[in-house]
């Protein structure tokens, strides 16, 4: 019996859905020292992160994924490729 091939993850589609559901674009991502926030990564994960940069310069969209920037994971310190961001629920920010 054959099984159906699962649909491949589409990061462009994930970004579009995230922006429609209240996530913010990279033009407003917090800079170094502005706190911790949730990011949607190119791989589809949601992680708590902080920005190590004092400027915003996202990488342009290409065949591998949409516009993205590098941030640092709070838990592990690893680099993450962020496509969208939002403040955590219960944060004291607007």
Describe the model.
The chain has 94 residues and is of the alpha+beta class. The mean pLDDT is 89. It is built from 1 helix and 4 strands; from the N terminus they run αββββ. It has a 4-stranded antiparallel barrel. It has a domain at 29-56 and 66-88.
Write the layout of secondary structure elements.
Layout lengths: L10 H10 L16 E5 L4 E5 L18 E5 L5 E8 L8
Average the pLDDT over all residues and give the rounded result.
89
Strand element count = 4
Beta fraction: 15-25%
Biggest beta sheet summary: 4 strands, antiparallel, barrel
Q: What is the string of helix and strand elements?
A: HEEEE
- Helical fraction equals 10-25%
Distinct helical segment count: 1
Distance between the termini: 53 Å
What's the overall geometry? globular
Give the strand order of the largest sheet, numbering strands 1, 2, ... along the chain. Answer: 1-2-3-4
Structural category is alpha+beta
Spans of at least 5 consecutive residues whose pLDDT stays below 50 are none
Q: In oligomeric terms, what are we looking at?
A: single chain
* C-alpha-based Rg, rounded: 14 Å
Which structural traits does this protein have?
alpha+beta; 24% strand
Short description:
The protein is α+β, with helices and mostly antiparallel strands and 94 residues long. It has one helix spanning 11-20, and strands spanning 37-41, 46-50, 69-73, 79-86.
